[in-house]
Amino acid sequence: xxxxxxxxxxxxxxxxxxxxxxxxxxxxxxxxxxxxxxxxxxxxxxxxxxxxxxxxxxxxxxxxxxxxxxxxxxxxxxxxxxxxxxxxxxxxxxxxxxxxxxxxxxxxxxxxxxxxxxxxxxxxxxxxxxxxxxxxxxxxxxxxxxxxxxxxxxxxxxxxxxxxxxxxxxxxxxxxxxxxxxxxx
Length: 185
Known about the structure:
Elements: E1 2-6, H1 21-30, E2 36-38, E3 43-48, E4 51-56, H2 63-73, E5 95-105, E6 109-113, H3 121-130, E7 136-143, H4 153-157, H5 163-176
Parallel strand pairs: 1-4, 1-5, 5-7
Antiparallel strand pairs: 2-3, 3-4, 6-7
Helix pairs in contact: 2-3
C-alpha cells in the first residue's frame, strides 16, 4: 500500500490558490475522478489499486493528523510498544507528499527526503505527527516576482494563481509527469 498526499486547504475560497498546488497536482494527474469524503481520516480519498490518493480536509497546518490516521489505519507506521511510535521510521517506500514551496522558483520542482520542513507548516505537522522526516516530498515552486514585493508569505500563498500562472501550471504538471514517477509503479 502506498499513500500519496496533496497538501491544500478545503473550501471554495482556497480553490486555485498557490497553497493548494498539491491538490491541483493530484487533480491534474488523476483527471476527473470521484473523490470520496472519508470522515474517519478527515480527507478526500481516491484509491487506485494499491495506491491511495489523499487531500486532507484538516487545513494545511494540521495535515499531519490526516496522514497519521491513514498510515495507522493501514498499519503502515512501525510500532515498538503499543501506541508508542518508532521515531525516524523510514516511510520513503510508503508516503509521498506533494506541496508548495516558496524557496523554489515558480515552474521548478524538487524531490526531497529526510529534509526539514523549511517553515512549511503542513510538512511540519506531518513530521511532528509521524516522528520522522524519512518520507518522499515533491516540492513545487511558487517563488515569483510578486514575492519580492513587501507581501507577507501567508498572504501570498493564499492568493489565486493569475491567468499566466494557470497556463504555466499545465506545463509544470506535464514536466512533473507523475505517471512515470517510480514511487507510483
